Amino acid sequence: MDEVFKALGDGSRRRLLDSLNARNGQTLRELCAGLDMVRQSVSKHLAVLEAANLITTVRRGREKLHYLNAEPINAIAERWISRYDRERVHALADLKNVLEDTAMDGNAFVYTTYIRTTPERLWRGLTDPEFTRRYWGVKFGTDWAAGSPMVWKEGGQETVHPEQVVIEFDPHRRLAYTWHTFTPEWAQANGIDGETLAKLSAERRSKVAFDIEDLGDSGTVKLTVVHDGFEAGSTARQMIQHGWPALVSGLKTLLETGDTLPQPQPQ
């Protein structure tokens, strides 16, 4: 938290966050173009923001793209807002909402967290049905080979579609797959009304990727979730930006403590 507050205390770094808030997924060159700072200064400020986990980076070919990351703001909000009068930290809550509601470049949602575990256990947490059931309520029916179909088993229902497939499967390093079909059965089980279901069904299918980085002797693993492929103004994009922080927090808690977080009621 000290690093987060220190990073937010500098006006130049706040302007960088504002720039990413306006258009996420920018390269260093693009960020420099919008600010009255030399490239070296921007790089130093970005390093501070990345060290505080306020931004995360994703490689796309030869380019390094910078994204806002809501995880540390979520952590601060949970630590402080629950203990003090909300009005006293109104600005902090507003910042949390801005970061969570950001429409990222290509409408991608990027979320990075650090978990005290091993890459092997984290991999099990993402793929083993007994793990996913505990923090997600979902079991995946698949052999996990690239191109293989995936069956989503949730709430006594099975969602099957030929476009639900595994995209990448690199054990302990990277996993990617297409998102599930929005069916009437899924909507009923999750309290989704007919109008929202119609909007979801009309959108193109998105995909999610999990990148795992072993931080060595620290006993900590870096997990980056990238969910993209959304259309502009996507209803699914608005929904998953609130769902992923809760899911990742549940996974983190399970791996670090052996316990699960209480399951929230569908809204």
UniProtKB/TrEMBL annotation:
Q: Which InterPro entries match?
A: ArsR-like_HTH (IPR011991), ASHA1/2-like_C (IPR013538), HTH_ArsR_DNA-bd_dom (IPR001845), START-like_dom_sf (IPR023393), WH-like_DNA-bd_sf (IPR036388), WH_DNA-bd_sf (IPR036390)
Domain HTH arsR-type, by residue range, is: 1-88
Gene Ontology molecular function, alphabetical: DNA-binding transcription factor activity
Gene3D superfamilies recorded for this chain? 3.30.530.20, Winged helix-like DNA-binding domain superfamily/Winged helix DNA-binding domain (1.10.10.10)
For this protein, the record's Pfam families field holds: AHSA1, HTH_20
| SMART domains for the chain | HTH_ARSR
Q: Which family does it belong to?
A: Belongs to the AHA1 family.
The record's listing under NCBIfam families reads: HTH_metalloreg
Name the chain's protein.
MarR family transcriptional regulator
Biological source species: Streptomyces parvulus
